[in-house]
Structures
1.
Amino acid sequence: MLEDKNQQKTSLAELGEFGLINHITQYFKINKASTIRGVGDDAAVLDASEKQTLVTTDLLVEGVHFDLSYMPLKHLGYKSIMVNLSDVYAMGGEAEQVTVSIAVSNRFPLEAIEELYAGIQLACDTYNVDLIGGDTTSSTKGILISVTAIGKVDKGEAVYRNTAKETDLIVVSGDLGAAYLGLQVLEREKQVFKVDPNNQPDLDNYTYLIERQLKPEARKDVVGLLKDLEVKPTSMIDISDGLSSELFHICTQSKVGCKIYEDKLPLDPQVISTCEEFELDSTMVALSGGEDYELLFTVPIADFDKIKGNPNFSIIGHVTAENQGLQLITRAGQEIELKAQGWNALNKE
Ligand code: ADP
Ligand code: MG
């Protein structure tokens, strides 16, 4: 995990808006050839090249999308970049630039904003994207972050949600449900801490889950892995709201149905053991737990041998005719209709 540093406090008012912008952007370097001009003018300038441009935005609001009592600001900065890069990769593209806009209340000292930007910078360095601009303003309460990511894809090569074909295989990268369980563990520790602040939580059994919640990684590698395998996905989406919900997007937009097999859902051993401890159904968690930021995609059935046995991917089912609906085949062979519940629905149970 990322470490916290810095205990001194400098008020943002002291620094002023321009002082703050200069301060937080001074350590960012431009690396991409397509960035002609970054921070500092009225607008950034990008080279449009021969390719098509991908643009995606997400807005994160304190108290709605994150809780600073267990989300360190450095992780928040990192994650705010990841959720946007994930959308670029889900189009089959390469992310190149980001803009970051923040609204902060005066409850946050400069050091807090530095932590946030340390996470943003780590994400930009690790994923090789340039920070090229943003906006900075105040809020009456809390912190709000809006990130826009810009990417590129070869002409005609963008992978959409509405192009899955009947008989295609349905594939996910990585494993499912861990980020949701990480949030459950952190919520539980927060409640324990409220009752007894001296209680030191023992989180050894949950390291993977917490990492997945606090420091998710976007699947930059998948587009390249598929290219190397000479597999062109017919449709793709990233898993931000939960597998069920994303399957609904693909199936509705592609006008198809699907069959998903319970015994094929990829689960980390910590997900299985923690589900037992929390008395949660691991299949429900895999289907409805959000924020995994894995990629869900469909490939022609002819590509079965290229995907099968690849440790990065799990074939979890196949596309069917629209009138078949969305079905989960349980371990017992029973067919259950899938519901489009995201992690919000799971939370309300
Ligand atoms: P303007 O008055 O044109 O909106 P600003 O003073 O808000 O310009 O911003 C000056 C420069 O700093 C611009 O290039 C802008 O993109 C960049 N910038 C402002 N806020 C941020 C931020 N939070 N992160 C990164 N770049 C920023
Ligand atoms: Mg501005």
Note: Residues 135 surround magnesium ion (ligand 2) (CB under 6 Å).
2.
Amino acid sequence: MFPPAPLDPEALERAARLLADAHSVVAFTGAGMSVESGIPDFRSDDGLWRRFPPEHYATIEVFHQNPDRVWTLLRAMGELVKHAVPNDGHRALAAMEAEGMLKAVITQNIDGLHTKAGSQQVLELHGTWRGLHCSLCFHVDPGGEALPDHTPICPRCGGPMKPPIVLFNEDLPQVVVTRAWSLAAEADLMLVIGTSLAVWPASDLPDVAAGNGAALVEVNDRPGALRYRQAVELGGAVAHVLPRLLERARSFRQP
Ligand code: NAD
């Protein structure tokens, strides 16, 4: 594995100028956004995929055949999510929105940390860890804080329940997808943050933005997921890079 990339001051200047001058900015975030909040991403050496290969633990087909097995992953993930708090990167995005620099955050994360940090416009493409849904009759149970020891059973139809997070091969929430795709198409700048762009269809969003003329800025401790030569790469950890990007963009916006 390559060492994390350092933050290049020239790239920071270019990205901050783009952010200060753009009119319609969206952030698109992935698991790297929450690593400094204590939730490992999926592909790193200590990531959850090592313990729980997705094809055996994280598809909707496995959930229908063997919900208990999927719940071993959900419990491990739930423990991490329960204790996580937003980091300075989440807070910087919330501040960008509050100051009129950012329209919305589109996230692949299910941890709810953007909302906890104060972001108002958050589109959770893969759902969020809030309550329980029946996979058969779609009954919703607001649920409590405690993680169940066994697969929770729907009080209405007896089907297995899970949090409303999207497993592999499961449909994304259509209303969220429609809004996210139109925000990406209207954007003149997309900040692509902490994602390896390995999960489809979310991975298409930077293409939608760039295809409609948006500039792209990638924030990643190991940048290089974007294939656009003109994309600005900001190497470094989100909690370090995003507050600096915000600070520099503010200085460009001052009269
Ligand atoms: P990924 O694990 O494939 O990639 C994470 C990316 O973030 C990598 O490119 C890595 O280099 C980078 N990264 C790691 N730590 C970073 C840091 N501190 N600062 C900047 N960059 C950092 O994640 P993905 O692309 O989001 O795809 C994984 C899928 O798994 C997503 O669909 C997501 O729903 C789910 N997931 C969610 C969470 C969460 O909710 N927090 C956690 C793990 C996985």
Note: The pocket of nicotinamide-adenine-dinucleotide is lined by residues 30-32, 34-36, 39, 41-43, 108-111, 126, 194-196, 198-199, 220-222, 225, 237-238 (CB under 6 Å).
